[in-house]
Please model this.
Amino acid sequence: MRGAARTVAVAALLLPALASAEAAADRFNAGGYFRVMARPDFEGGDGRLGYWNLSGRLLNEGPWAALELGLDVLQARPGTQEVWAAVHAKLEGGSVRNVDAANGSLAQFGLTQLYVKAGNVVLDRVTWQLGTLESYFGILGLYDMRPASIFSDTVGVSANYHFDPVDVLVGLGDSGFALHGAAYNSVPTVGGSVRVRLGDHAEIGAGGQYAYEPRVDGNQNAPYFTPGVRPEDFLRHEVVKHFLEENPGQEALFPKPQPTSANSSRLIGHLGFGKLGPLKWDDFYVGYTKRPPDGRYVETFQSQTYTIYLAQLTARRTQFQAGNEMLLTLIPDRLDAAWGLLYGRDVNPDDTLAPGDDNRTYWSTVLRLQLYLSQTVHILVESSLAEEKSANGRLYREHVDSVFQNSGGVPDTRGFEMGDSDTRNTWQLKGGLVLNPTGFGIYARPSLRLLYGLQYSNQQAAYGNAFVASLDQYNLFIGPERHWHSLVAVEAEAWF
Model:
């Protein structure tokens, strides 16, 4: 009996400590995401079916890992308006040992989010955030894109007022390091968003941000421009050459940089609706960005270096992107579908000569079907069609010997004709077996997949590769036309 009494006494003493340890453990939370894969590519590729996610993220993305950590510094009792505070950190990156070229290097990872959140401080129903401020309405899951996002480049403070059915976010901070890195200059940024939930079947949102980089005379990292630079000379990096051809012997009179100011902005919108018959949910996102100007670059001419400043030549570039994703239940517990559409337009009015990604339009559609053979064994089939069109002419090579196919076989020795077509068309088909231990759902995770992918493109070898593109007569690595590409994949993906 004495032993039993001693055990009871020790347990009584330990119970408060155990309860305290459990409460302390509840203060900490962790979650994350990863994808890892093996994709043997027998056609000289780098293990991805195409170039980028325009044809859907499936088989076009590499490895990724993310870990998000949270600690409740101060907890509020449920159902009260007491003050609370929490710390969040997110580490993520795109490399895993033996899976990609970086071979798991930690240099590919970074602390991408770090912030403190606090609620009901000064104002009830307001959540304050101090640190990184990224905010977005949602994600296009088929493409792994966030067209409607703000503050992805900003560190500062924001306030989110929540009163059903409305959320109002306002924030301000600095985007200088995100835009300029080591050549830091302060870029004050302000913005916000509003989201309204219209019952259980719809919601709508809009927002934006504005960044202003002031003129600071004498600060070499502030916005400057070199006067008198012609766009063609800038594109060819021949600004100094042509100046000295027109002004021989006047190196000392090369135009000095002039200070100016700069700005950038972003507008976003979102419309979501669903829970209507077979339609689970539909999300439409839109984003319009006026990009910040570039800083400077260096030209070397006759053994001397000259710095060219670009605040005016690159100040009018814009990007527009709109995307929609629809989730459908075609046959309950048997067949689901996800259908995505994406459109984008990039414009640089100061460049009307050289084809490139800053002057293009693109569109894509992706349809994924998932058939449930059982609760955990599924069949996935996905197809996509995409087109990219250069606004400034021939950007894509359709043939190995493109130099003999374009402009009557006359090469563009000045460098503005990059290929023999202004359009790249891409079709992809992917399918295979999926094991989802957690059951039904296109986005149920973890997911184990055995897939086969097939691509056709009018562009020659339209996937990451190490083929030699030169037509030099001494080239030892001469390959055939490659418009088809296929690969097999074993993949694992999970949220936790």
Summary: The chain has a mean pLDDT of 91. The helical segments are 2-26, 176-180, 231-236, 239-246.
